[in-house]
Structure formats: structure tokens, C-alpha cells
Design brief:
The chain is mostly beta strands. It contains one helix and 34 strands.
Length: 418
């Protein structure tokens, strides 16, 4: 016998549909009002909702007999693309002169009032092989000069002693070409380059620093660009010269991979953030065309001191990579700008970071001290006379879309008081 549907039943169904429509329209209007970019006003860094509407018997464990009434079950889930954004104070950013060229995955070193900005991608098919210099005193760009022909073009490791800049390993060429294990040193006073002994193995974007008279290189991506390396080597150097002919094997870093910050502070070697996995050349591609592979960003922080054993420090507020040159050391604090965090769990798109993080080396506590004018990865940071600067990298697609957009040469600064 067919089940009769009364007018009341249809009214009820129609009411459910109307309520659902109101909910969806309201959510759309709510999301569209966030274009002001004020992530600090978010009530929580994670926002999701789920709605389940059912008609008819839906409990499979019920002992009551089933009816022949047709059921309607609707399940709706939302995950705002900006769910990883952390509420942060608004900083006032001033736009400065743009860099001569846009660059992604470049490298930078600050020496006094000069920021040396090296190489990087211009586009996925074109890489730079020169250095531009920004003068913090007069806020101008100038002094361009070439890098050695055999030096890597991106994913470099780099460190300085205040005069000499040591550039190690990295990717040679555009797209996802192979790495080189050749290393070079620049005398910033004479602009002369010399070569150092090659690394035992080539690496992509390894953590690199000068510590206790030795040039340390650790982690990074292995030769296939995807597998994380754990190896740690060091070389004795002084005044731009190697004091040894071979690299010495050191204690491996607990977690490998590229794109992490590496800082020496209070005579301790500190590695921050990073990722496991990276884009990889498509098999058989004559141009080594980049193909996306699984990546895992992490928030881990490791420290090496006299104990000769890596110690784990409090992690970053969220997983973060592509920050190897996005840090500055100020008043016993490490500041980090932007980066890349875990991909969106539904769309699988990469998510860029738009916060300024502070790690207080006295209290060993992390905080978020402000937001950037936009999210950006592989930014190149500097600090001068109370001003925090950043330039270059790849920015987001807009306030409500944190996925990677345009490669930029823009430069901004904000007054920071710690």
C-alpha cells in the first residue's frame, strides 16, 4: 500500500530546503565581507561547519520496524580556505622601491646596511644568475654583479661572517633540474668569487650557517629533489678560505628536508621549520618539468650546543617551510616572515603564510606579533634601525585565497619595537 504524503509533509520539506538556501547564501555573504584582509578579526584560526538533515528512519540500530517512507539526508561541510590564518595585530606596512627583478627561491644575506639578494627563479622557465643590493640607509637598489657560471641558481644554502658570503650547493637551472655540489665564496669588499671544496653530495635548500669557525650544511632535499636528507657536514673556514680539503661528517639532524631557517644565536645552532618532500622532475621530461609530489611541512625546532646532541625546542605556532632567508635576529629574538604551511585538506592546494612570528630566545616561547600585507613564501628579510623589511618571493592570490600566485619583487617595511 503506497504511503500518502500529506500537505503538511510537503510544507515541512519545503521549509527544510528554504532554511538550507538561507544558510548557504548567508555563508557566502559572510565570506565575501572578509576582503579587508583583517585576519586579526577572525574568531578562530579554524572554521568549519557541518549540517545533517534527515527524514525517515536513519538509525540502523533501532529495534523499531522500518517504514517505507522515503528519506532525505543532506550532509554539507565547509572549510574556509583561510582556516590556517592566525589572528594577529595589524602592522603598518610601507611599500619601498621594488627589486630590479622578481625572484622566487632566491637567497639573501645582510651585512650592516646592505642586503645582498641572489639568483632565484624569474619564472619557472628562467633563473637569475646575478646579485642585486639594497641599501637600507638610502633605501635604494643598485650594485648589480654576476654570480659564477657554475654556481646554483636556486635552493642555495648561504651564510656570512660579516664580510665573506659562503654560497653552497643548490639547484642548477630552471624547472626542477638537478643540483650541484659546487660551493663558492664572495668577498663583498672586492666582489671577487673563489671556489670551495665540493660537498660530498649535492643538496637542495639545505640549512646552512657559520658556527664556531666552521661552515655547517645539513638536511635539504636529496639528489632526486623529493627525499629528505639527514646528513650534516662542516668545513673549517676563515677569511673566505677553506682550511680543509674535505668536509667533515657531523651528527645528523633529527628530521631532514629543505626550506628551513637556520640561525646561530647565543653560540647555539638552531634549525627551524622545514618540510619533507618537494616538487620533482617529471620522469622522461627533456626540460625536467616540475611535477608536484607529496609534501609535509613541520613546525619542529632543533638546537645544537656543547652537548653534541640535537635538542628539541618548542615548535612554531604552525607548520612552516620556505623560510630559509625569511628571518632576522633582533634583541635576542628570531623574527620569521611568511612561509608555506600544510596544504588544504580538501582542495589539496598549497597554503601560504601571512604572519610575522617571534621566538624569544630568553623565554623560548613563540608568539605572533603581526600580519604581513599579504601571504608570501621564500621572502628575503632584513632589519635596520627598527625597521623590518621583506622583499621578493611568491605571494597569495588574494585575501581569501592563500594559494600561490604571482612571483614578486615588491619590498615592504614596518616599524618593529620589541
Amino acid at each position: 500500500m503506497a504511503t500518502k504524503h500529506t500537505p503538511t509533509h510537503y510544507v515541512f520539506l519545503l521549509g527544510i530546503v528554504v532554511l538550507l538556501a538561507v544558510f548557504l547564501v548567508g555563508d557566502y555573504l559572510w565570506a565575501s565581507t572578509s576582503s579587508s584582509r583583517s585576519r586579526a578579526s577572525s574568531s578562530a584560526p579554524f572554521w568549519s561547519r557541518s549540517l545533517d538533515l534527515s527524514l525517515g528512519r536513519s538509525n540502523p540500530g533501532s529495534k523499531e520496524p522500518e517504514t517505507k517512507t522515503k528519506g532525505l539526508k543532506v550532509s554539507i561541510k565547509f572549510l574556509n580556505a583561510t582556516y590556517t590564518d592566525i589572528p594577529a595585530p595589524n602592522l603598518v606596512w610601507e611599500e619601498m622601491p621594488e627589486a630590479p627583478v622578481p625572484r622566487l627561491d632566491g637567497a639573501s644575506i645582510q651585512i650592516k646596511d646592505l642586503l645582498y639578494v641572489f639568483s632565484g627563479y624569474g619564472t619557472i622557465d628562467y633563473v637569475h644568475s646575478h646579485c642585486d643590493i639594497f641599501n637600507f640607509t638610502n633605501n635604494t637598489w643598485g650594485g648589480r654583479f654576476d654570480t659564477p657560471r657554475a654556481m646554483a641558481n636556486s635552493h642555495l644554502g648561504m651564510a656570512t661572517d660579516g664580510r665573506y658570503i659562503y654560497a653552497v650547493t643548490g639547484q642548477y637551472g630552471p624547472q626542477c633540474r638537478g643540483p650541484t655540489n659546487r660551493n663558492f665564496v664572495l668577498d663583498t669588499q672586492t666582489k671577487e668569487w673563489n671556489e670551495l671544496p665540493p660537498l660530498p653530495l649535492a643538496r637542495y635548500a639545505p640549512a646552512t650557517q657559520l658556527w664556531r669557525g666552521r661552515l655547517h650544511v645539513m638536511g635539504g632535499g636529496k639528489e632526486d629533489r623529493h627525499e629528505p636528507g639527514l646528513e650534516h657536514w662542516s668545513l673549517a673556514v676563515k677569511d673566505g678560505k677553506a682550511l680543509e680539503t674535505e668536509w667533515r661528517t657531523e651528527i645528523p639532524i633529527p628530521r631532514g628536508g629543505p626550506h628551513r631557517a637556520c640561525v646561530v644565536a647565543n653560540d647555539k645552532l638552531i634549525a627551524i621549520g622545514g618540510q619533507e618532500g618537494d616538487f620533482q622532475a617529471k620522469p622522461g621530461s627533456p626540460i625536467f618539468k616540475c611535477s608536484r609530489r607529496h609534501e609535509v611541512q613541520y613546525a619542529d625546532v632543533y638546537m645544537l650546543d656543547d652537548s653534541k646532541e640535537w635538542k628539541q625546542l618548542p615548535p612554531m605556532p604552525k607548520p612552516n617551510s620556505h623560510i630559509e632567508f625569511a628571518w632576522v635576529l633582533v634583541n635576542n629574538s628570531i623574527l620569521i616572515v611568511g612561509g608555506t604551511t600544510m596544504k588544504h585538506p580538501i582542495t589539496k592546494k598549497m597554503i601560504l603564510v601571512g604572519e610575522v612570528f617571534r621566538f624569544d630566545l630568553h623565554t623560548l616561547k613563540w608568539s605572533v606579533i603581526g600580519s604581513l600585507p599579504f601571504r608570501v613564501k621564500t621572502a628575503l628579510a632584513g632589519y635596520w634601525n627598527g625597521w623590518l623589511y621583506f622583499t621578493s618571493g611568491q605571494r597569495d592570490r588574494g585575501p581569501d585565497d592563500p594559494s600561490p600566485g604571482k612571483v614578486i619583487g615588491s619590498m615592504y617595511r614596518s616599524k618593529i619595537i620589541l
